[in-house]
Amino acid sequence: MKPYKEDTTMKKEQIQMISFNVIANAGDAYDQYVKAIKAAKQRNFNLAEELMKKGEQSLVQAHKAQTDLLSAEVNGEELSFSILLIHAQDHFMHAMTYQQTAKDFIDLYKTISENNNY
């Protein structure tokens, strides 16, 4: 007689919902970073910083959703990978990369503004 083995496979619907959460929050973060660069270009640095903070809040939410998947795998759950999950990871990484780009552009616009009366 085989010992009972608990099903440790995360349901497809759970993975989809987590993936959508990552996509939505990473997309929102990216959008906030784009707006922050545009605000900095117009020398509205207070708005740029506010938008960066909003983007970071969304990015934290995307990261928490991603961490749910990582934790599940570490705890022995089997995850069925899909194009949707890969797409979610792509959005997350893109938002993280663009966050640094936005910070760099905002710093650049501040420097130009301070030094050249831009």
Describe the fold and architecture.
The chain has 118 residues and is mostly helical. The protein has a single domain (12-116), classed as Phosphotransferase system, lactose/cellobiose-type IIA subunit (Methane Monooxygenase Hydroxylase, Chain G, domain 1, Up-down Bundle), CATH 1.20.58. 80% of the residues lie in helices and 0% in strands. The protein is built from 3 helices and no strands. The protein starts with 11 loop residues before the first helix and ends with a helix.
CATH overall fold name: Methane Monooxygenase Hydroxylase, Chain G, domain 1
Helix content: over 70%
Q: What's the level 1 CATH class?
A: Mainly Alpha
Number of H/I helices: 3
Q: How many structural domains does the protein architecture include?
A: 1
How many angstroms separate the termini? 79 Å
Please tell me the overall pLDDT.
90
CATH architecture label name: Up-down Bundle
Q: Considering the protein shown, what is the CATH homologous superfamily?
A: Phosphotransferase system, lactose/cellobiose-type IIA subunit
Radius of gyration: 19 Å
Q: What gross morphology would you assign? A: elongated
Q: Identify the quaternary structure here.
A: single chain
Which residue ranges are poorly predicted, with pLDDT under 50 across at least 5 consecutive positions?
none
Instruction: Characterize the largest beta sheet: strand count, sense, and whether it forms a barrel.
Output: none
E-strand count: 0
What structural class do you assign from the helix and strand content? mainly alpha
Portion of residues in beta strands equals under 5%
Element-by-element helix/strand order: HHH
